[in-house]
Structures are given as structure tokens and as C-alpha cells.
Amino acid sequence: MITLLGRRVCRTPSIPASPGSSIAGSSRGTSEPAALSQISLDRAVISSSMLTRRDKSEMVAELRALIREEIAAVRADLTALEHRQAVDLAITRQGNLLLDLRRQVEDLDNRGRRNNIRILGLPEAEGELPHELLTGLFSHLLGEAAPEDFGIERAHRALRTPRRDGVPRDLICALASFPLKEELMKAARSRPDLRYMDAPVALYHDLSQTTLDARRALRPLTRLLQERRIPYKWGFAFSLQARVGNMWHMLQWPNDVPRNAGLPHIAIPNWILVGPPARAVGPEEAAHNLHLELELPRRRGGPNGPEE
């Protein structure tokens, strides 16, 4: 029995010659009419097992229907794939747009803080007067060049609860004069061992939390630059500028890391805080980036800001 597209075709096995067949008759003397009758019977059996024209037409129709179904399934898969690709592209574009908008908001936030100074280490006491503390610190910093009025518009401690270990909260102030702020920052940079009220004090630019998070994400790179004694500085509002040889390189996005600057390849975790990658990241590199996400000790100071 053979199955063709769901249709069963029976093939009757060869019937052995009966005692009255022509073959046996030659040896047993069977009559010729009996042999002819057996041959006619065999032909009838064979004819009944052969496919008719109608059977062939039905088989062809079933084949065509099956091919149409397969083609329709392939077309549906292609349509779904094109739709997914379009959705992925739209998501990527929207992600880049959101990151650009966040960069613009970050820039506006930092520009609103340009006249601000964040002071670390200044002792904190209950009932203190921030304006008087800052006036004394700035006068101690500038010496005879200190003006009579520093134009302090606002001053307050960082908006968080005091720490239990006694570490003072940062003191933030806004000055009316940007040139005076720059003069104070320059004087503070020239005195890395600045002390006031028997405590080490450091002055930094007041930056948005987004910028601080982005700088913190670049710690592996800045530490490498420090180990190689490569000078670097932070740009406004967010950029890392390093001088290799006689050339300055600026980093704002992951693909800005120069390959020919004599630096080894280093994976930077949390690049989403900085911007979108310029190329697809494979699973091995993604796992490597995740592996580098270590518990690094938080640094309280440095030449360019509270977070390096």
C-alpha cells in the first residue's frame, strides 16, 4: 500500500499462478480458455490499482494548495521581520533623541550653576552662619587681594540629612560675579593643601548630578590616565580632554576614545549615562563591561571636581 498526498493506492501483490493457469497448464495440460481467463483477471487487478486522470488532478491540486500555504507562511515571516526591524530602528532613533534632549537639559542645568562653588570639608556646626563662614574662607584664600564684599547671593549646606559619622555636608554658594568665582577657583587650585578651621578644604564647581554620574562612569579611564601620568581636564558641561604627546583628545561619546593615542583598550561600564554606543556591542564585550562594574571607592577630591 502506497500513500500519495493523503490518497491510498493499493497494489495487489502478484497472485501466484493457480493450478489452472497457463504456466501450470503447460505442465498439467490445462485448457487455453482457463489461461486467458486468468490473464484477464490479472489485467483487471492491475487496472484497478493504477491512478486515474481524476486522481492525478486531485494530487496536483493538493500540491498547489500546499505550496501556496508555504509561500504565505514565508511572506508572513518576512513581513514580521521587516516590522521588527522598523520598530528597532524607531526605538534607536527615539533613544538617541532622548539622550540628546537629556544632554541639553544637563547643559542648561550646569549653566544655571556656573556662578556656584561647592566647598568640601568645611566644618559644620549647629546654628552656623554660612555667609560668615564663606567670607572668612574666601578672605583667607585671597589674602590681601580679597574684596570687601564677595557678593554671596545664596549659601546653604547640601540638601540631605547630616551624616552620623560627623563628616560635614558640602557647603554650596552662589556668587554674583563670575570673574570673582574664577579667581577663587584659581587660588584654590594653587593651594592643594588648603586648610581652614583646622580642616582640609577643597573648592569645586557645582555640577548637576547627571554630569557627576557620567564622570563617575569614566573612573576606569581617568585612573588609567593618572597611572600613565597623562594630563587631562574636564570640559564644560561634559567632556574629558586628555593630552597625548602634542595633541589634545576630547571624549564625549564611546567612539571618541582614540585608538592611536597609545592607550590600551579599556571597557567603560555604564556608558548609558554618557551616550549611545556608536557600534553594536557583542555579548562578550557586554559581559566584560559588566565585569568591570566593580565597587570602586568614592573619591572626595581631585584637581577638576568632586568626582573623578
UniProtKB/TrEMBL annotation:
Xref: InterPro entries = Transposase_22
Supply the PANTHER family for this chain: L1 TRANSPOSABLE ELEMENT-RELATED
In Swiss-Prot or TrEMBL terms, this protein is called: Uncharacterized protein
Q: Which organism is it from?
A: Pelobates cultripes
